[in-house]
Design brief:
Layout: H1 3-17, H2 20-40, H3 46-69, H4 73-87, H5 96-110, H6 118-128, H7 135-148
Length: 149
């Protein structure tokens, strides 16, 4: 079952079960995908839909951080619950060990020698493992690997 079909099926299930949180999150997700479809003037592909899911999840993470720093834990908890729903639709994240192995391989593949080559290494990894690696975590791993050289 494709991601788009899965979201649609889960949306109907949430509606029938009166699961307000899941229904709200999936409604926002479907709306964002529909807006992208209107903008592109063609149906959204699976990869583009995954981008929409990741963008929605990133918005929830940013909002959580903002609310926590603004001492609004009740709103941060709401965003965390919404993020948990979105996370179900994202690919499984890579472990720290897997990221380190990917960084070593990418450094060799692109011939990076110093920290200013960091962008090329990051792009190499992000293109191959879209949605499975956190940018901040990857950035720290790449920087550490290149500074050790």
């Amino acid at each position: 079952m494709s991601l788009i079909e899965r979201v649609e099926k889960d949306y109907v299930t949430a509606y029938k079960n009166r699961d307000a949180l899941r229904l709200s999150v999936l409604r926002h997700l479907k709306t964002a995908a529909k807006n992208l479809q209107v903008q592109l003037m063609r149906p959204v592909t699976e990869e583009e839909f995954l981008d929409v899911v990741m963008k929605q999840a990133k918005q929830r993470q940013d909002a959580m951080e903002q609310f926590r720093s603004g001492k609004r834990p009740e709103l941060a908890d709401k965003e965390a619950a919404e993020y948990a729903v979105l996370k179900e639709y994202m690919p499984k994240a890579l472990s720290a060990e897997e990221i380190e192995a990917l960084v070593r391989e990418a450094v060799l593949a692109v011939g990076a020698r110093e920290v200013r080559d960091m962008g090329r290494v990051m792009n190499h990894i992000m293109a191959a493992h879209k949605g499975r690696v956190d940018g901040k975590e990857l950035s720290a791993a790449v920087r550490a690997a290149l500074q050790a050289k």
